[in-house]
User: Fold this.
Amino acid sequence: MLSNYLPILIYLAVATGVGVALLVIGALIGRYFTRYPDDVEKRSAYECGFEAFEDSRRRFDVRYYLVAILFIVFDLEIAFLFPWAVALDAIGSAGLVAMGIFLAILVVGFAYEWKKGALEWD
Amino acid sequence: MLVMILFYAFSAVLIAAALGVITTRNPVYSALCLVLAFFTSACIWILIEAEFLAIVLVLVYVGAVMVLFLFVVMMLDINVEELRSGFTRYAWLGWLTAFVVILELVGVLAARRLGVDATQGTVPVPADYSNTHELGTVLYTQYVYAFELAAVLLLVAIVAAIALTMRRRQGLKVQDISAQVAVRREDRVRLVRIEPEKRP
Assistant:
């Protein structure tokens, strides 16, 4: 029932309010009570004292994608596990077998990526 | 009444976030707007009492898919000029997609008008009703075939991701710790018995 979620809604409202309030208060104090107004140095990039060498957008190792994609796959797997765990009393052994097959298929993939060395960073 | 107000509030945030996705210049801001759009969609799904799907939306899309998007956006070499040059070339595809989506929206609204509304809105349910439990009882029994197919799809995704992106750098020297631990004295040291020299 929706009224069960009222505390979460209140929490959401309070969290949003606190977040906005902190930003606004910070901006207002920064604007009206600052001792030193804006200058170029204050707004410049600060990276250990010198200018940035290059743009941060550059090509990078494809292995980051691999880790992210493998994470998505196993994230989906646990998403399937939650309703199974909740409904296990109703579906009984048939559900157990169904989830066994599901996990067995995914263990094949897990063994494959382990043996291929996709989990190693080297 | 409160539900209606909340629905319109969340919808307004959702539409604003979706507009932010396509109007902000910086791709990182677009991705973060998309996170907000996903999150407000989850809130709307909570309003129709689909709690599990709402949590999955946050878990999978915000948690995993957006991580991938941010990877792509933040670390890929994005040439804005090149992207902008393709805008007019692919505009017809965008218009076509928008047209189909609008058609589908009109279709949904017209279906309700015709009286073939399958959902009948949301029926109030008791406080101990568990949407997740209902989902689990049909997903692993009635739709078990589709469920196992999902496993196969995920397996294909694993294999494809590894086959496409796995690269081994050649000539890389790595430590094999198990081999180091398992080494025995005989592998490293050879004791040689040397006859003492005879004195002349």
In short: DSSP finds three helices and no strands in chain A. Chain A touches chain B through 55 residues (CB under 8 Å).
